[in-house]
Design goal:
By secondary structure, the chain is of the alpha+beta class. Helix content is 27%, strand content 27%. It contains five helices and ten strands; from the N terminus they run H-E-H-H-E-E-E-H-E-H-E-E-E-E-E. The strands form two sheets. Strands 6-7-5-4-3-2-1-8 form an eight-stranded mixed β-sheet, with helices on both faces. The protein has a two-stranded antiparallel ribbon with strand order 9-10.
Length: 215
């Protein structure tokens, strides 16, 4: 009997290789600040635009950043990317094209893995927005020139290959000229095998027996 049982013993599920989680510890926030500094230095050395705002690394390092929903993409506890999540962004500067979305602010990736990390964030963000019942994800990329000749054009082309749409240019959240990026929300049930997500979702109201909604 024991041999029969062992023959059909279930193997434990394999852990996802990546994890998206909020930056809640001092060590994680310090690591995020250092990643941003490395990324900005990498961009500068290649003549690519960097934010005029000087305090972005400190935004991640501050203890209050835990309340701002700073999040990180990890592989084996190594931080690959960090970003600020906003599920109720004030995008009035986008004009009538604003509206409900999951906004990814100040996205920075580890210089050695930029495209891989962006692709993973793209998959995760579209799924997370769908779970928040939001129609899309929005983000911004600094753009100093006409997009046809801007140094970020190759990067925008890669984003479009990943499913992003460029919605023109205009002032960004910090007042600088940016390319406005949009990605349709899409529920991806199988994504948990690739990315384990511990970013909490707001509690959804449920219908009780009386026909009323309760928390």
């Amino acid at each position: 009997m024991s041999n029969t049982t062992s023959r059909f013993k279930r193997t434990p599920p394999v852990a996802a290789p990546y994890e998206m989680r909020l930056l809640l510890t001092d060590a994680e926030r310090t690591e995020a600040g250092a990643l941003v500094e490395d990324r900005l230095r990498w961009l500068t050395l290649r003549g690519l635009p960097v934010p005029m705002r000087p305090d972005i690394p400190d935004v991640y390092r501050e203890a209050s950043s835990a309340c701002r929903k700073t999040a990180g993409l990890f592989e084996d506890d190594v931080l690959l990317a960090c970003l600020i999540l906003d599920s109720d962004p004030a995008l009035g500067h986008w004009g009538r094209d604003g509206g409900p979305s999951l906004f990814l602010g100040h996205v920075h990736t580890l210089p050695a893995h930029p495209d891989d990390a962006v692709r993973l964030i793209t998959l995760w963000a579209s799924d997370h927005a769908a779970r928040l019942n939001l129609p899309c994800v929005r983000a911004e990329a600094l753009a100093r020139r006409d997009l046809s000749i801007d140094p970020i054009r190759p990067f925008l082309d890669r984003l479009e290959d990943m499913g992003w749409t460029v919605r023109g240019t205009g002032p960004g959240t910090d007042g600088e000229r940016v390319a406005r990026l949009e990605l349709a929300a899409e529920l991806r049930p199988g994504l948990t095998s690739l990315i384990d997500c511990s970013v909490p979702l707001p509690r959804q109201p449920v219908l009780n027996g009386s026909g009323r909604y309760s928390q």
